[in-house]
Amino acid sequence: MASAPLIFHISHASVVVPPEVREDILLTDRELAIERLRMTDRYTDEIFKRAVLQGHAVVEFPVSRLVVDPERFVADAEEPLATRGMCVVYVKTHDGSPLRAHLAHKAALVRDYY
Questions:
Q1: Could you read off the pLDDT of 4-57 as tens digits, one per residue?
Q2: Are 34 and 99 in contact (CB under 8 A)?
Q3: Domain assignment present for 82
Q4: Burial (CB count <10 Å: 0-12, 13-18, 19+), residue 54
Q5: How many domains does the structure of the chain reveal?
Q6: pLDDT digits over 47-87, tens only?
Q7: Is 85 within a domain?
Q8: 82 close to 91: Cβ distance less than 8 angstroms
Q9: Which of 66, 98, 100, 106 is the most buried if burial means most Cβ atoms within 10 Å?
Q10: Is 1 within a domain?
């Protein structure tokens, strides 16, 4: 019996924060590096690349979840973590510290990355 191919969604392995997005982040470079370590599912991309060899598909999100989180609802009213500042575009870090001062670019980030 042949198995059906699977699709693996790797949503939080990237550490990429584009320069135009970096400008809006309040953290120092050192603080941002630490936050990316805390918030990244490290090496999941490498683990699941073996799936491609077995005929499965891998879909990788190209930027860090600190840019846009593809596993969050776009509408804050629908996203339970919006109350903690961690909606589709985070305004808080893992511990509740400010990540962005505002969400002026939310629509553009969602359009470009979500």
A1: 778 888 899 999 999 999 999 999 999 999 999 999 999 888 888 777 767 788
A2: no
A3: yes
A4: exposed
A5: 1
A6: 887 777 677 888 899 999 999 999 999 999 999 999 999 99
A7: yes
A8: no
A9: 66
A10: no
